[in-house]
Specification:
Elements lengths: L1 E6 L5 H10 L4 E6 L11 H18 L3 E4 L2 H14 L4 E2 L5 H8 L5 E6 L1 H5 L1 H10 L5 E5 L1 H8 L5 H12 L7 E6 L8 H7 L5 E4 L1 H14 L10 E5 L4 H18 L1
Parallel strand pairs: 1-2, 1-3, 2-9, 3-4, 5-6, 5-7, 7-8
Helix pairs in contact: 1-10, 1-11, 2-3
Bound molecules: D-glutamic acid.
Family: Belongs to the aspartate/glutamate racemases family.
InterPro entries: Asp/Glu/hydantoin_racemase (IPR015942), Asp/Glu_race (IPR001920), Asp/Glu_racemase_AS_1 (IPR018187), Glu_race (IPR004391)
Catalytic activity: L-glutamate = D-glutamate
Length: 257
Amino acid sequence: MTIGFFDSGIGGLSVLAEALRRLPAQDYLYMADTLHVPYGTKEKDDVKAYVMESVSMMMERGIDALVVACNTATSIAVNELREVYSLPIVGMEPAVKPAVEMNHATGKRVLVFATPLTLQLPKYYALVSRVDEGGIVDSLPLPELVRYCENLQFDKEVMAQYFHEKLSAYNLDDYGIIVLGCTHYPFYRNVLRELLPPHIQIVDGNAGTVRRLSALLTRSGIAHNGTGRVSFMSSGNEPAYLDKMQTALAFVRELND
Ligand code: DGL
């Protein structure tokens, strides 16, 4: 069976890395919408059309289940995808709910990093209103981080400098958890771990997403008869980007070890 993973670029590889670890007996098809990355700074209706077009390309190649490994794309298009396609679909949203629950005891605040588009959509607003009774959630858009990641900019010093600037207005003593609400951001987990005070936990939705995928595969009777093979495709079909995806997958798998 082949599980499709979709993202605007290489971000979803951070989720695929988790799937390869937890569900090694599947085969995977990873697609990046290279013609339109990044999504997070574009118009909602345009992004919806890009997602629908990309997923239809994946369907032509043949997939048995789909993970929308992108918070932005999920916010905009997961409902429509579920209307159009009958295969099992797993979406992602920033892990605000678990973060608020985990933080309950400490009385500290939660800071959510995501793309500007994710943070401005009604879906995010509804999520925060539902789970944040105490008004402890703050949100910070980090559009540049997607660009850095797409350029494979993982230099510790450059990135630490960027985070210092972005966080300079925040008193980090007030915060207990940072949520990585974009799948490109876990590439910087180690850089963040080194620069954040040790009391701050860093949370992403990757493990939860793979748990949901696993449950859905079981429920749908999809067999675990693959070998962990990963094929790549991109909307622009650029050979150099196929190499980039391989490099980025190796990088993020190592981070998780
Ligand atoms: N990786 C995507 C997400 O999880 C979006 C990045 C982008 O294209 O702006 O939101």
